[in-house]
Recover the amino acids of this structure.
């Protein structure tokens, strides 16, 4: 390989190495975007706990979907799936007077431009007591400068909870 070709190859390789971190940072949205996505999820949980249908609805995209997969507690391997319009969740939680709290941890947040996905273990408490656990999967869009939830899919079980869940066996 001649001197000019060798230098051109090295220059291209150096350019690729230097540009790679910029590309990754632009694609994942950075810490600020991840924090904004996480804040949207936490605001949704806060509105859910407050039974505030308007605050919940403001965080959702019209036409979105919610789905849950419940495992039977009797050890049966069969599961039950339920799919509902996302717009029904505010009505469901607003009409409930129980004290509810859902928390997530170790969230994996992935962002590309104006779309985001969040995958996280969670536990759910009803009137101060552990009720169930599983994994949440959120899909979000950034519309008019703010993140909004397009879909929520979650598993629901009372046993074999993800590490960190406040399950009955943790008491």
């Amino acid at each position: 390989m001649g001197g000019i070709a060798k230098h051109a190859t090295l220059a291209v390789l150096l350019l690729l190495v230097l540009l790679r971190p910029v590309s990754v940072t632009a694609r994942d949205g950075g810490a600020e975007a991840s924090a904004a996505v996480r804040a949207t999820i936490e605001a949704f949980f806060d509105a859910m706990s407050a039974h505030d249908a308007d605050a919940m609805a403001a965080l959702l995209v019209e036409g979105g979907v919610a789905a849950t997969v419940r495992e039977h507690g009797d050890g049966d391997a069969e599961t039950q799936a339920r799919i509902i319009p996302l717009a029904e969740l505010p009505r469901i939680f607003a009409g409930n007077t129980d004290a509810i709290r859902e928390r997530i941890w170790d969230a994996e947040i992935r962002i590309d431009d104006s779309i985001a996905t969040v995958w996280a273990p969670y536990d759910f408490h009803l009137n101060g007591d552990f009720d169930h656990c599983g994994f949440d999967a959120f899909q979000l869009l950034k519309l008019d400068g703010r993140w909004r939830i397009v879909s929520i899919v979650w598993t629901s079980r009372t046993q074999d909870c993800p590490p960190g869940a406040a399950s009955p066996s943790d008491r």
